[in-house]
Structures
1.
Amino acid sequence: MKSFLLGFMLLSGILGYAQDSYQSIILKKELTEHANAIIRDETILIEVEDIDKMTVTTKRVVTVLNKYGDRYVHAYDFYDDGDAKIKSQSAYVYDKMGNEIKKYKQRDFKDQSAVGSSNLYSDNRVSYLDYSPMSYPYTVVYKSEVQMSTTVFIQPFQPVDGYFVSMESGSYQLKNPKHIPLRYLESNLDSIKLEKNNTEFELSYKVSHIPAYKYEPYSPQISDMTPKVKVALDRFSLMGVEGTANNWKEFGKWQYENLIKGRDALNAVTKAEISELVKDAESDYEKAKLIYEYMQGKTRYISVQLGIGGWEPILATEVDRLGYGDCKGLTNYMKALLASQGIQSNYAVVYAGEEQKDIDPEFASMQGNHVILNVPGIAENDVWLECTSQSLPFNYLGDFTDNRHVLLIKEEGGEIVKTPNYECAINLEETLCDIGLSEDIFTASIKKQSKGISYGNNYHIQTQKEKDKNLYYKEVFGNLQGIHFDDLKFENDKEHASFSEELVFSGKKFYTTAGKRILLPLNFIEPEIDIVSRNENRLYPIEILRGFTNKDQFNFKIPEGYAVEALPEAISIDTDFGSFKLSVQESNEHPGTLVVKRSLSVNQGHWSADKYEDFRAFLNKINMLSNQKAVLVKNG
């Protein structure tokens, strides 16, 4: 009996250990701290069998601790009938005790187009797990095998998915039995526990116990701080089109020859129409502007993910005939229109988005998610054109593609250059407010002008519905109550990328009274400054991607029968992070008017973590000073 019990206990222990592997109640604190999800194990095996044959095998085990961690399950794969095929796909879901909740076979996965509703044509699809958790935590084990003929894209080794997700263990292996020459670029690997076993033709990395990165305000992009290994083959294939390159000049040359060349022809009728359009223009700059506005008026953006893996633009003649295209097609079309008048331009590949992601100048590979046009030689600086917008001004990019490295694809080869940087002084908002005060309400007349990045953020207001305009401005003036708009006027000066707003509105009294005194807040429009909390253990550097300047003047009409009793002193602050000036005084030219002038500049820049408290003090002081009050007293 005793031996039976001992055997039963041993068997129970073995079974319990096997099941414990997916338990989530035994996780170490170092992995759960600041984490919404934990990657328990991620194994990626890439087998490059030939220039045009590659298999990627994935096993990913993720424990999701709360609803914010659902996004890190990543139980999906992309495929394309002409290129990538999912050979196998499965998933298992476990509860917090490690008990299996559900099992998914390949046929149970949902399948849909891999692009949005604006897409007209696409071969790209995604097969994904559709699971809605009943409780937390839960664990998903996902396995897949995908075979593809395109080898120009090699999945990087990137063990950190984002903020608030930790990793228990992971491995990345690239096998290359045919010894196709490869390159790789490592970054930030010294921050993790790592085993590396690389050879000339194969790679192997193992990692363990990477705590979650906790988000800190004004920190750099997480991808700039976390471990990553980029990988590329020197000989590769894109949907059956083979290439050889190990630098940007060669890589750009291959793209030009195989993706761009010969696709910019136009018919004679269109050429004649463009020639007529620009016949009176006095410079190539003026010609290019007229042609850009012609293109904007004739075309619209629709995504078309076809043609050599979605990287080849549709023919210029097709865009001309149909009146639509994606970023590649529209950029190629604009390039063709300019060429018809002898104006040379360059197809430019870019990572678009507010985060300012670069095409890596140090690592030639297939990169980017968008295309714009570069036009050199027609102005003092290169002209840049966003060809998917029907409303942007000529030679204006905004925060979608500003200040980042891009790849120019030229006949002679690729070249890395940088798009324009909208500096602090250029990103300007100037506001003039006349405010009338009475016992119960205020009236206000505002004139505001926006330039630089601010232009791109604001000019769209004029095209919104009246109801949406009112909602927008009520949010902008969130510190004011009971607002009613009497008049809204706008002027969009596209020639100088300047947007003007004129508003007339009224609202409830926003000052307070104390006996016969009025305490008047001078902060009629709140400054564009965050209040950030103290962080004595700041880990990450401070980064401000885009500086800006705000200049405000508030003219308060002092109520009848009141006089100024006390005003804040003028102040001027100047730091590495920016500057702030505030002055308050009665107007000599307009008696009975209190003039508040406020100027705020925040600099673009990068500072070490030990500067955080100085930075925080700068922001908080601006908010404190902006929230000062004037004291008005009733006469007699």
Note: The first strand starts at residue 37 and ends at 50.
2.
Amino acid sequence: MALKVFHRLVSAEDARSMISGEIRKIMRVTEVGLEDAVGLTAAEDVFSQYDVPPFDRSEVDGFAVDHTDVEGAQEDDPVTIRIVGSISPGEIRDVRVEKGKAVYIATGSVMPKGSDAVVMVEDTRQRGDYVDIYRSVYPGENVAFAGTDISMGDILAKAGTALTPEKIGTLAASGVAKVRVFDRIRIGIFSTGNEIVKPGADLKLGQIFDVNGYYFQTKLNSLGGISARFLGSVPDREEDMIRLIKDNLGSFDILMASGSTSAGFFDMLYRVIEEAGGSILFHGINMRPGKPTFFGKIGDKLFIGMPGFPLSSAVILNYIVIPSIRRAISGESERARMVKVPVKITPEHMQETVYPVIITRNGYAFPIMGNSGSISRIRFADGLISIPGDLKYVDAGEVVRYYPLNEREASVICIGSSDPLMDIVVLETDTNAKIVNMGSWGGVNAMKIGIADVSGIHILRNGVYNLSVMDDNLKDRSLLIRGFSRNRGFLSRTGIASFDEILNNDLTFVNRNKGSGTRDLIEEMIGNNERIRTSMRGYLWESPSEAGVAQAVAQGRADAGIGLEFYAVKLGLQYRHIKKENYDILISRDFYGSSAGKSFIESLKSLRGRESQYPGYEIPENIGEVIS
């Protein structure tokens, strides 16, 4: 089985152009009733059939009058005129307002001849066949004249316009019953891989739950104009893939798959397309993440091969595929704007690089770093930023192109060290909170540049936790409040309790990433012992999270690591105590005095009494109080 070589990578813009061009060829126009049109796109200009309103009508309940008859009417000097009839909605009455006379009229009714204004019923008092009027009116007051909202022949929806409920309401008001639209694009989705299992299954080592199929289907169906259906997963066998493709080709305009798209020995999907009688239009996009994406055709049907890693595929879906569909249907270009970044960003390769970001309160785009398999980076992202491939780096304060995904207002922005209790407190304060796990020092730096509301930290210096970071710069911006304590020690399957034990038995250690509080503890424990740094297997293996360390040990990929007792209990590991650490919280001064800040403190204090749910944690009496 030959390996695939990416001979020519297309740019992201070329990929969008090619995909949108092919989609245009398969689009169909159909006519639907208004009730079925929501989310679809108008295929031609739609014009009003009637004036709106179609006649002069009253906007209130009251008395239709000639305004000159009630000039000068006041509360202490009313004008009295005779009532000569009444009109209700939908009723046509041969009644006329003559000099000194009035007609009672209900809201929405046709204005009678001879009247040019309506006095609200609240400004009148009826006495038999007469009415006392306590306020004058001007010509046209409380009257909606024919065609003042929409005139016959007005254009209500341009070709390429998405038909929202609001637009459909306007079409209905103007007499339009049916519209010609682009029919929904039918997309069939499947995942590939021997390791893929359905959520809810009993997960075995080496298996992962299917993410992409469910994400693709729900994301595409939320856009309108698309009918997407998840077909399930298929193992890495060419005959199974070919069978699934051939069985479903006639039911969809586009087939979309994730996984098996790269250039490795087991990546075969591009060959399957060719063996099914199709052709590859491009294989590889000059960007990260998402490089292995390919695009092909089988007859008049289209095929999009997406990367298997969730973040890579999510980026391709939102940055390439969805903009291509929008461009094909409406001619709409990518919804981008320029924003500043608050930190220096250095892409790893000279390729266009896309990062998920949150938008901070001052409008900066803060990148959510991590690996391409991390779906949680999309969970909290407001949008994506793109850094061109010819830039070695983007400095803090420089502008980049930003593509919104799911922008939301959040009363809490949390950047710092990850912790399950901290997440609970933040999300109890605001379910729309933005959370970026960057380690303790990442939280300190985020607080110093003014983009975080709260930052969880556990930084050990000279035997004391966290107080040492409070320099003058940080004190100007923030306070340090007491959080909680966590038991930290060696995690293993056999009861390992020291670095010497790991080193002397040639065992493998899993380290934590630089910038984390745990890494600071590890370095303090090692001290000047360079033998451990140079000879201990796995010292350079850095996990970016507490859970990652525990899972590496639980799954046998490492023999030991330093982590939380909480995860040892959860995963059934042996725990050997090192120390109790303080996980405290930097909180910006502005946020501390806000209503959201007060709610955060209340939620933090409410952890007391819930310790039994979180083994290895201790909730102190002074939780939530300022300690520096």
Note: Residues 52 and 149 are 5 Å apart (CA to CA).
3.
Amino acid sequence: MPSYPYRTTREDLRIPLPDGTRLSARVWRPVGDEPVPVLLEYSSDRLTDRTAAEDARRHPWYAGHGYAAVRVDTRGHGNSGGLPAEPGGGAELDDGAAVIDWLARRPWSTGRVGLLGVGAAGTTALLLAARAPGTVGALVTACPEGGHRLGGALLATDLHTRLTALVAGAALPPDPRHVGDSWRSEWFARLESLDPPVDTWLAAGESSVPVPVPAFAVAGWGDPSCSFVLRLLATSPDARALLGPWPHGLPEDALPETLRWWDHWLRDVDTGAPEEPALRSWISTRWAGEEVWPSPDVREIHYGLDGALRTAGTSAEDRHVPVRSPQHTGLDAGAYVPQGRPADQPPDQREEDGRSVCFDSQPLPEPVEILGAPTVRLRLRGGGPPAQVVARLCAVGPDGTSALITRGVLLTDGRDATVELAACAATAPAGHRLRLALSSGYWPWVWPEPDTTGYAVDPSGSALSLPVRHLAADVGAAPVSLGTPELPEPLDVHLTEPLTARPERLTVHDIGRHEWRTELSPAGDGTRTHPDGLVRDEHTVTAYRILTGTPLSAQARTDHTVRLERPEAGWDVTVQTRTQLRCDAGHFLSVVQLRALEAGSVVFTREWQHRVPRESTPSTPK
């Protein structure tokens, strides 16, 4: 164990809620009676197995620097009592506010609480801060998750996978080592209460989250949360952000900056954290800082689609360029939520470009540094059915290699449209060309529209707007650097990987059937044996299929299996979940299946079917 300013202790306890339910909690705090600020991480992930390894690194480090670091499982998850509540819903937030109040009143607490959350828990932290702004002094959110639509189009990628994992997490039993013989009755109560929130998820669009307390946001470029983080900066004067070259999660390199944030707002230590640039970001090869956001060093540069950017094949009789893509356009999109594996990154985009209409610039005379969210304003022919407008921005090298910079989607009713691309930080080198590629679909990121007509663009009234950072913006600016924390040794969790590893991403083209199939396997697969003897075995496979010319052939499926075992006690339970999604012209159709097994025998099965109207109202022009 590294040497920290405070010696620490760890305690498992149960936090009472007003209705008598008790939530499972693990507390790391300094030894002694001196009150200290509290840092709360409140999540539906199981703290005794799912997040145990991460918790054992992060929270003792915070405790060693003078905090009571508390990790709490939400109601009906892990070893917490009660029945699962809807994630981010009113009941879960009411519980969280009660937990904050209870922690603030502990004798070892100063009454000042900070919130920490990663992914969905990062969104929950933002919502909780709005519930208890008087007690919550500051928060750190990493890669907060947003809604389930992208520019009005329903996400296909990630949505059903997250839904499957959510059902599995809520269906897993408490651990008898922690709750005793009541584990089985609590398990069956959970299973009987489950109701997957399919209707809510399919209807959920992007939402704004108020931030009433000083917020520090962390994300990796390429994570879908980056655009939200920049919007948070633009609207919250007490917010700061760190966007770096990381996958989804809270990187260890960011921990010292989060500690500076806590120390300033919860301990009244002058760490200078609020005086740091509003945005510190990794741009291609280096760190850079923007004192305020939007930055005066970033200006909009406009590229007309009939001037600076041009396409071939425009008819002399018709000024409109038709865009009608095959349904498998998007197979080279890469992962929607990057986890740090090679297959997460989008490959060379030339095949995707060939399925799109491309507008290219001349070779760039000097590098172009992009920081922010590009937009594409399109003048469309109008009068057609709703269509998906997909815009990709690429940098094309002298050898023809096409590297994706960013992309965006908009569901439009055929009128003029403005597509906002995902926020990014990238440099297009001198000698490269900028390429704007337009398509009418992006499977399997978003569900295709029933109509295959596509749309038609008038280049003379259309333009790409890039947020270009001045190449001399760093001259005279203080350098940006991050420290490296000295964390505790990793928890001794033994990972046994499958003997035959599945490919991270496998795509098959059945030429005779005109069918494309893609299969994904996540990084979390394998068997993990924890120091206390618990064995967690987890396997997931996600598959997509579509016929090239038939949008309503699109299907998505995720199979997820989790087995928990304590061999010395003869405890062996398995939860198997499957989610299947498809669509017709007016509805999304889902089937969610659940099986629970004890010692290899099926003890519970259930199936839920949902038929949800598309109700995907086309976006109006901006």
Note: Confidence is low (pLDDT under 50) at residues 616-622.
